[in-house]
Amino acid sequence: MRVPASVGPVKEEIRWGVVGPGRIAEKLVADFAHVEGARPVAVASRSLDRAADFARRHGLDRAHGSYADILADPDIDILYVATPHPQHHAVALAALEAGKALLVEKAFTATTAGAAEVIDLARERGLFTMEAMWTRFQPAVVALRDLVADGAIGEVRSVQADLGVARDYDPVDRLFALELGGGALLDLGVYVVSFAQMLLGSPDTVTTAGSLFPTGADAEASLLLGYADGRSAALTTSLRYALPGQARVFGTAGWIDVLPRFHHPQTIVLHRAGAEPETITRPQTGGGYAHELIEVTECLRAGRTESAVMPLADTLAVQAVLGQAADQLGIRHAEDPSVL
Q1: Annotated catalytic, 106?
Q2: Are 328 and 208 in contact, with CB atoms under 8 Å apart?
Q3: CATH code for the domain in which residue 259 is found
Q4: Among 102, 291, 324, 335, which lies 20 to 30 A Cα-Cα from 300?
Q5: Any bridge partners for residue 247, and if so which?
Q6: Taking Cα atoms as reference points, which of 190, 146, 226, 128 lies closest to residue 323?
Q7: What's the CATH code of the domain at 94?
Q8: CA proximity to 79, closest of 112, 127, 149, 12
Q9: What's the CA gap between 61 and 41, in Å, rounded?
Q10: Do 23 and 125 fall within a single domain?
């Protein structure tokens, strides 16, 4: 992976701005209490009242009533983008043009082309950019990766993962609105695909089955990822029915269960031939978001422009799989250029 050298002088305090004060932003901002050397100082919404309320409740210095205003705020080093998926592309490009580093919620963008454009500009400008895939930074997942790297289960040959919730269909809800990036793939499927990509790399084939809501957003999807050497991943996501949220990693010498819910687990179980199962528990700090915030802070302080744990190449690979799955289901995601 290519990691450019430096983004400039290291600041004593990394100052954050929040773009989109929604549900995930509420949880993430609370975890700054566990991050040394970083502080959220401003928030932006297209509703000034909403931004002001968020700033008051979380002790932020400033509230902006437009995304353009926070992009022009000179006292912000990095923006956390938590708007609906199709808005990430335009906000991220404008932020990079304004010289801001980025942490962008998953899914990174609504389309593969949109992700590629953001990544290309981030690399051109030498500005730190990362997808907020908190799963990769969970202590239990770090333990899993260490076990795999140490050969605890031999060669990884297959991955299974599922993540789904039962939601009552509401065509005006963001989850079901195609123009807002609704559907299971971008909201939940990104987790199962990213988990498989982390362990197996990019697939050679993607085969998808699923169904759509009347709005055109996907209700459910099952993905079979195939690799030229015979490895595979079986992944399921849904907004139509609940799933346990479990994952399994199969190797030539054993397997690892990631207990629900796998995208922010506390416990994994190692199974090896001839040995008793070994349960490994690694609790999260705070709400679980602190770990990715610490990674970003350390990267910025070290002058790195990408994370080695969640590199941009992996983000683009995941986005490509999601794009292929959407195409096979007849879903037409699009970026929203009108957000600014």
Answers
A1: yes
A2: yes
A3: 3.30.360.10
A4: 335
A5: 161, 258
A6: 190
A7: 3.40.50.720
A8: 127
A9: 5
A10: yes
Average confidence (pLDDT) over 185-211 = 98
Tokens of 55: 């700033």
Helix (H, G, I), strand (E, B) or coil at 194: helix
Instruction: Specify which residues 205 forms β-bridges with.
Output: 226
Euclidean distance between CA atoms 129 and 7, whole angstroms: 11
> Model's pTM, two decimal places?
0.95
**6: exposed, middle or buried (Cβ count in 10 Å: 0-12, 13-18, 19+):** exposed
Q: What is the pLDDT of residues 216-273, one digit of tens each?
A: 999 999 999 999 999 999 999 999 999 999 999 999 999 999 999 999 999 999 999 8
Report residue 242 as tokens. 């609940």
Among 45, 240, 262, which Cα is nearest to 136's?
262
What sign for the dihedral angle of Cα 214, 216, 220, 223? positive
Closest residue by Cα to residue 320 from 42, 12, 174, 109: 109
State the residue range of the domain holding 37: 14-134+301-320
Residue 36, Cβ density class (10 Å: 0-12 exposed, 13-18 middle, ≥19 buried)? exposed
**Do residue 173 and residue 256 come from a single domain?**
yes
Q: Which one of the listed residues 11, 27, 100, 106 is annotated catalytic? A: 106
When divided into structural domains, the chain yields a total of: 2
Distance CA 258, CA 266 (A): 9
Cα(59)–Cα(204) distance, rounded to whole angstroms?
A: 48
- 72 and 163, same domain (yes or no): no
> φ and ψ at 73, to 5 degrees?
-70, 115
pLDDT at site 9: 45
- Residue 206's SS3 state is strand
SS3 304: coil
Residue 322 host element (H or E): helix 312-329
Sole residue written with tokens 């050969």: 151
| Structural tokens at position 103 | 């942490």
Are 207 and 221 in contact by the 8 Å Cβ rule? The answer is no
Q: Is the pLDDT of residue 2 over 90?
A: no
What residues have CB less than 8 Å from 191, skipping those under 6 apart? 106, 133, 135, 161, 163, 237, 262, 263
